[in-house]
Structures are given as C-alpha cells and as structure tokens.
Design a protein that fits this description.
282 residues; mainly beta; Protein Transport Mog1p, Chain A; TolA/TonB C-terminal domain; seven-stranded antiparallel sheet; five-stranded mixed sheet; 3 helices; globular
C-alpha cells in the first residue's frame, strides 16, 4: 500500500500535545477560532467579530469538509430565533469547484439564486470596504427569508459572513454588524505567502512517505507552512481518519523544500497537498 501525492499547497508543523502553546497566526488552523465575551476571534485569519447585541454562542459546526469548507461560527439569538448568522471559510486550494476570489464566489452564488425558485438577486455583488479590507457583498431576497452575504479573501481562503432574517429591520441590523469586524495589523506579524501547487519534484529536497493507513482511495487535503529555511513548520491535515492524519503529519513534518524567494529573499509560505493511500502492487 502506498501514499500517492495528488496535489500541492501549504502545510504547518504542529507541536505535540505536551508542547502545545496557544495558537498564533502561523501555527493556528482555520477552525481554531473561539467566542469569548461575545467576540469571535480567529488567530488564523487574524480577525475579530463582536456579535450583534442579544446574540450568543450557538451549536458547534461540523468538522471541515474534504473540499476545505469550514463552518467557523454559528451564533444564535437569545430567545426566539428570528434570524441566523453564519461565519464560514472556503479553502481555495481544495474547493470542489475552482473559485478565483470572493467576488467570483458571490457571482456564482447569485447565478445559483437566479435558478432557484423563491430566491431573487436583483443586483450583482458589490465591492465594499470593511476595516480597510475589500469585501464583496450580495443581497438575496427570498420567500419569507432574505440574506446578505459578505465575503473577503484571506490566506487563500474566502471568509464569508451570511446573515438571514425574515424581518427587514433585523436583517439590516445584522448586516450592519459586519462593520465591527477588525483585523490584526500585519506589519509585525505577516501571514505566510499563499502559494498553490508548490510541493513538486522540483521543490521538494527531502521527502518521507507517510506510513500507509487504510481506508484507501480517500483524497486527504493537507495544508503546510514552509519556513524561510525550507523546513516544514506546521502541518494541518484538514480531514482524515485519526490514524491517517497522524501518519501524514509525522511524515510531512520531516519534509524539506527549496526555499521560496521573493526578490532574491527567502520568505515563509503556505501551500496545499492532497494525499491518497492506495494498495501497493504485489
């Protein structure tokens, strides 16, 4: 049985449980966000979102999908539910359908809405600026429930805020809450540069194959962070069986790459890889 390398991207090396430290921007994963004192913070995306007044922590979302879709937070209204808030992220390395950016994703969403009975999207997505960052905004009408979606590009993910409500006044108030989103300054803590398909025969200098773990033929998405010295700093196995995730993380943490350079200087990068365990030829 062998582990086949299907695709390439970014990875980061996680500390062992005994050596774990609070996640920082480089070593965090997208699902590491938390709601504390009514503020959702996410170290991976370096964002903070104060919940609208009267909202509290809701049910935990599902694990990330094999296509790299994350339900980051689903706050709920105290009392009778009259609206919904969804904070989510789509990994562009592993999306089931290729998507160029946040604007393209909302254009696809609008096209889908126009084909769906009961939904309307009278205007195309618009560019807006929130906390100094460009967002795409899409307004969707619906029978009984309307939505406002904001989306922005962060670290080769599309982070989205989706607000839905039947009451126009509530929906307007929910949509206005996105203006309170803030992002950590990057001057002293820049995120790794996002480089797709970097793990190739030309860039891998040392490679340790993961120990084969069934079940076979599952596509396993993995993100890594590669340091300026070419060594893997962090491995994030996005979705796999626990034994497979352990095998991949232990192997990939030993990989070494040709350092990625910008204007002749090595920089830290993030990329993606897809693994697939297959039976060996006998």
């Amino acid at each position: 049985m062998a582990a086949a390398l299907v695709g390439a991207g970014s990875v980061a090396l996680s500390a062992s449980p005994d050596e774990a430290t609070p996640p920082d921007r480089r070593m965090a994963d997208p699902e590491d966000g938390a709601l504390v004192q009514s503020v959702y913070t996410n170290p991976y995306f370096a964002l903070a979102y104060p919940l609208p007044a009267g909202w509290k922590e809701g049910l935990a979302g599902p694990p990330p999908s094999n296509a790299g879709y994350y339900v980051l937070n689903t706050p709920e209204l105290d009392g009778e539910a009259k609206g919904t808030v969804l904070v989510a992220a789509q990994d562009r390395f592993f999306a089931a359908r290729p998507v160029a950016d946040a604007m393209a994703m909302l254009e696809d969403l609008r096209h889908s809405a126009l084909q769906t009975a009961g939904l309307t999207a009278e205007t195309a997505p618009q560019l807006v600026t929130i906390a100094g960052r460009s967002f795409a905004r899409l307004d969707l009408g619906g029978v009984g429930l309307s939505r406002v979606v904001f989306a922005t590009d962060i670290r080769c993910h599309i982070v989205s805020f989706t607000f839905a409500a039947s009451d126009p006044a509530l929906l307007k108030a929910l949509a206005a809450s996105v203006d309170r989103v803030s992002f950590a300054a990057e001057a002293n803590d820049p995120a790794p540069l996002c480089i797709d398909h970097y793990a190739t025969d030309a860039t891998i200098r040392h490679q340790v194959p993961p120990a084969p773990i069934p079940p076979n033929f599952l596509k396993i998405p993995v993100r890594i962070v590669i340091g300026r010295d070419g060594k893997v700093r962090h491995v994030h196995v996005i979705r796999a069986f626990p034994a497979q995730a352990k095998s991949i993380a232990e192997a990939v943490s030993q990989w070494e790459f040709k350092p990625y350079e910008v204007q002749g200087q090595p920089v830290e990068i993030e990329t993606g890889i897809v693994f697939e365990f297959k039976p060996s030829d006998r």
